[in-house]
Amino acid sequence: MRETLVVGAGIAGLVVARELVLQGHRVRVLEAESRAGGQLLQKTIAGIPLDAGAEAFATRGGTVRAYLERLGLADRIIAPLDAPAWLHARTGTTVPLPAVSLLGIPAAPLAEDVVAVVGRKAAWRGMADALLPGPVGAKSATLGELVRRRMGDGILEQLVAPVVEGIHSKHPDDLPVSVAPGLVHHLLRENSLARAVARLRTDAPAGSLVAGLEGGMRMLVDTLLAELDRYGVPIEYGVRVAEVHPDRVVLAVDPDAARGSVVGIDPDLATVDPADPADDLDEPEGEVREGLVVVAAPGLVDPADGRAATRTATHLMTLVIEAGTDAARALAENPRGTGVLVARGTDVTARALTHVSAKWAWVREAAAGREVLRLSYESLPSADTARRDAELLLGVTIPETAVVAAEATTWLRAGRIEADDSIPLVGEQVSGTGLASVIDHAHRLAERLGAPGADAPTSTPAAESSADPAASTERNAS
Ligand SMILES: Cc1cc2nc3c(=O)[nH]c(=O)nc-3n(C[C@H](O)[C@H](O)[C@H](O)COP(=O)(O)OP(=O)(O)OC[C@H]3O[C@@H](n4cnc5c(N)ncnc54)[C@H](O)[C@@H]3O)c2cc1C
Q1: pTM greater than 0.70 (yes/no)
Q2: How far is CA 433 from CA 190, 414, 416, 427, in A?
Q3: Which atom of ligand 1 is found nearest the CA of 11?
Q4: For ligand 1, is residue 249 a contact (CB within 6 Å)?
Q5: Which CATH superfamily is domain 100-205 in?
Q6: CA 10–ligand 1 middle distance (angstroms)
Q7: What count of Cα atoms within 13 Å lies in the side-chain half-sphere of residue 59?
Q8: Ligand 1 centroid to residue 424 C-alpha, Å
Q9: Does ligand 1 come within 6 angstroms of the Cβ of 425?
Q10: Which residue owns the Cα nearest ligand 1 atom 31?
């Protein structure tokens, strides 16, 4: 039987490898780095094991939960602190996000917690939604257009945009309405966007939008690795694929070459400019491996128009605050929900802050009185910038001496591409970011590939993108 070569041992590669081996494929996984997991990574900072990439999953649709249950991880699934995230608004004030909202779209535009963010005039404009016929805005191409038409610019720019940017790293004008599944359907039934939000939130009450794993998302990787080991699937580490074909791959001669890598924890990687030909390393021909190829390495396959896949950097700065200090006490006593989202155009450069030790009980326990904060950035901050941003966002003085650890992690991620049918692709580059989308898509693709030798299609429609690339604080906000 011909071997199936899965390129990449991130979550997509591990899931597809497991599902294929269960269908009778003989599978081998090729991974460029010296570890599996990709954007699921645990780092020990000041002795505390912490997620340095994804830290939660969307419960929408139940896909990930069902998968975790199948892997025997049901009793490790945990809910985060059930409290709304906060917003550092354009005005410079930090306020809780409206209690009942979806992606920042309020269920009650005139509620005090909405007025506190957008002001009374914009809130009144939001009430126009209740008077407009249901179809108004229903055919909008983007989420931004939908909200603007029904509730006006104020609510869109001051409330919805910061939340959406925190979750999807894009303005609502650049996202299809499908990022909020069911929203238009309920708009047409309820004749009101606000009531559509209320309806969707009734179906998925606060706190149930995201969940995590006790001990961190790394548990998922460890469990999948144990399964693959049990099924005798070899994983070759330090093997970077340079070229893919349906029936073979060509390995890079220098496995450390950055070309093709979409994710790194080395800040220097963030300086790779995909548009600069000097950065586009010309790989000499390397060793060839033959087999049915499945690519689970975002960034390895370029868009159909021949351009190099775009790559963007996300930088996290994790701060650990010493136990017993005034800062730790103030943070523990008055957490701002699970963290704070940041509107653009304020004095804070962080895009979002997650109060990790307030959000997850297992982290609080492991931190033993210390407080853990995680801030995300578009460009690499200094530890001092992160400390000052944390002070502004949380309203607490954090002296330098109270910070016992400040650790940066940089991720380089590939943009989304349209899959053609030539080589099966899985992973966030085709499924959209986020564990829910990635796992669901990888699972469905493996099913469609079927038993070895079956005449199966090579690609499957991408699931909705629904990721929180920076911190799932934002998820609690939606
Ligand atoms: C900071 C951060 C926070 C996040 N938070 C969340 C969250 O809370 N919830 C959520 O749902 N999602 C979150 N995400 C997104 C989520 O982690 C990703 O969408 C998902 O993990 C992507 O998995 P993947 O397998 O598609 O890709 P990756 O995890 O990138 O895996 C790809 C693998 O392929 C390997 N590879 C690359 N090139 C080659 C090559 N040429 N040859 C061989 N191997 C190669 C890589 O080394 C890597 O191991 C977050 C992402 C980041 C960066």
Answers
A1: yes
A2: 30, 10, 8, 8
A3: 25
A4: no
A5: protoporphyrinogen ix oxidase, domain 3 (1.10.3110.10)
A6: 6
A7: 19
A8: 17
A9: no
A10: 10
User: Each residue of 379-407: b (16+ CB within 10 Å) or e?
Assistant: eebebebbbbbbebbbebebeeebbbbbb
CA of 387 to the centre of ligand 1 (A): 27
Q: Whose alpha carbon is nearest atom 18 of ligand 1?
A: 434
Domain locations in the chain? 3-40+61-69+215-309+414-449, 100-205
Q: Are 416 and 465 in contact (CB under 8 A)?
A: yes
Q: From the CB of 11, is ligand 1 less than 6 Å away?
A: yes
Which of 39, 443, 475, 478 has most ligand 1 atoms within 8 Å of its beta carbon, as the pocket-test mutant? 39
Q: How far is the CA of 423 from the centre of ligand 1 (A)?
A: 19
Classified by CATH at the fold level, domain 3-40+61-69+215-309+414-449 comes out as: FAD/NAD(P)-binding domain (3.50.50)
pLDDT in 10s for each residue of the chain, 478 residues: 789 999 999 999 999 999 999 999 999 999 999 999 999 999 999 999 999 999 999 887 788 999 999 999 999 999 998 787 899 988 888 998 888 889 999 999 999 999 988 999 999 999 999 999 989 999 999 999 999 999 999 999 999 998 888 777 789 999 999 888 899 999 999 999 999 999 988 876 555 678 999 999 999 999 999 999 999 999 999 999 999 999 999 999 876 654 433 344 444 443 334 444 444 444 456 899 999 999 999 888 888 777 777 888 999 999 999 999 999 999 999 999 999 999 888 889 999 999 999 999 999 999 999 999 999 999 999 999 999 999 999 999 999 999 999 999 999 988 888 877 789 999 999 998 889 999 999 999 999 998 786 655 444 444 433 333 333 443 343 3
Atom of ligand 1 nearest to the CA of 240: 42
Burial 223-255 (b: 16+ CB within 10 A, else e): bbbebbeeeebebeeebbbbebeeeebbbbeeb
Does residue 298's CB lie within 6 angstroms of at least one atom of ligand 1? Answer: yes
Whose C-alpha lies nearest to ligand 1, atom 26?
Answer: 427
Residue 377 DSSP one-character state: E
Spatial distance between the Cα atoms of 375 and 317, rounded to a whole number of angstroms: 5
Is the shortest distance between the CB of 150 and ligand 1 below 6 Å? no
